[in-house]
UniProtKB/TrEMBL annotation:
Name this polypeptide is given: Uncharacterized protein
GO biological process, one term: nucleotide-excision repair
Coiled-coil residues: none
The UniProt record lists the keyword Metal-binding: no
Record-linked InterPro entries: NA-bd_OB-fold, Rfa2
Gene responsible for this protein: Contig15899.g16948
UniProt keyword Transmembrane present: no
Lineage, broadest ranks: Eukaryota, Sar, Alveolata, Ciliophora, Intramacronucleata
Pfam families named in the record: Rep_fac-A_3
GO molecular function, one term: single-stranded DNA binding
Protein localization: Nucleus
Entry GO terms, CC: DNA replication factor A complex; site of double-strand break
Record Gene3D superfamilies: Nucleic acid-binding proteins (2.40.50.140)
Length: 116
């Protein structure tokens, strides 16, 4: 198991959206998005607004990755996320509402619950 994956298991990983990625460089995070495609050992995910986030060093089973998933990993300087592990969400998950909640969480409620 790589050091990055061990860090994902050991440390808390706040849920972030595309607008918060740059604030968490070098830290473990949880990112939720739609699986779009795979390129070599990278997975491209999309937000509710169809913006892309690249998950690098992907080592999972591509056949198990569909619809909306949560990826836990480490944010890189180029705003990619190094893959650690994932959780599959069901087809009823509302990504648009979830992303709106994240904007509120990281905005107005920032001082109450998150330290980046």
């Amino acid at each position: 198991m790589s050091e990055e994956v061990k860090a994902v298991h050991r440390e808390p990983h706040p849920f972030i959206g595309i607008h918060q990625i740059h604030n968490f460089v070098g830290k473990p995070v949880a990112f939720v998005g739609k699986v779009d495609r795979f390129e070599d050992n990278n997975m491209i995910m999309k937000t509710a607004e169809d913006k892309e986030v690249k998950i690098i060093k992907f080592r999972g089973d591509q056949n198990k990755m569909h619809n909306v998933i949560e990826v836990r990993g480490i944010v890189n300087k180029d705003d990619t996320i190094s893959y650690g592990e994932f959780t599959q969400y069901d087809n009823e998950f509302d990504l648009t509402t979830y992303e709106s909640m994240l904007e509120y969480y990281h905005g107005m409620c920032r001082d109450l619950c998150i330290r980046s």
